[in-house]
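User:
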Amino acid sequence: MFALGPAPRAADQRSETWLIHWRAASLGLLALAMADAAHAGDNPDSPDKSQYTLFNPTPERLLREFGTDRPDLTESPFTVDAGHIQFESNLFGFTRSRPDSDGTVTDTYGFGETNVRIGLTNQSELDLIWQPYGIVQTRPSNPQVDPTRSTGISGLTVRSKINLWGDDAYEKPGATALGLLPYVTFPTDRGNGISNDAVEGGFILPFSVKLTDKFDLGFNAGVDVLHNDDTPGYHPEYFGSASLSYDWTEQFSTYYEIAGRTGTHDPRGDIVLLATGFTYQFAKNLQIDAGVNFGVTAAADPINPFIGFSARF
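Assistant: Predicted structure:
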């Protein structure tokens, strides 16, 4: 496991970094093997789309219904059809922290964070997530201490989503879907206050169940392996979420969500959030959304509103 105690030697630190890479690669290979072993047609009534790949795109007439991994925190188990690209962007987001032990409040502004989802096969995709610009401002409670401001780009997150079942068989109530989502985040501009300063990674297990024709329920369970802020080494943080969505019309939907995170080493305790928002689908391959996350524990940021859009090509 990753070091949580005394500072490791340089060689141990290098070993930890390679261990993250190895585990992420192993998870990805295991997921691909499991997906390949699964039957390509979950639904006997659905057409066989196993022949379609990144270089042999799925025909327009066989595309799944447009679905996204935003705006809620809960990731879906569904993948983008082979040979197609989907952009999911957070146009603007704002987060205000609670005062820390010194009374300092931090405001974070995010602009243009985008998840580029690339369909590789009928049941797998590659995701690239990056934010071109962010601002972090701290405001100390002591007026004699100057506030600080950091700006710059985020780290680059590379993910591999694999659907084990449900991609093409999620139309009727009672249907379920399960996926695997390993990822690694690489630093791009260490020390800018926006990007992570070390290689980090994690794994999410996304699951969905179709309750009725209008209600869907999604669950996530996962772990982040994050670099320690003040000491060498890494530590795990565990998280989970549940999101209930309701389709008011074919175009308009809302969601209601609870999410939590533990193992943050924050003396104020664990993080728990409540969230809500909506999506509106303008066209077959275009959607806008907005939402807000509310922190309900002392360690959680009290408010995080955002707005975004998604498009498929």
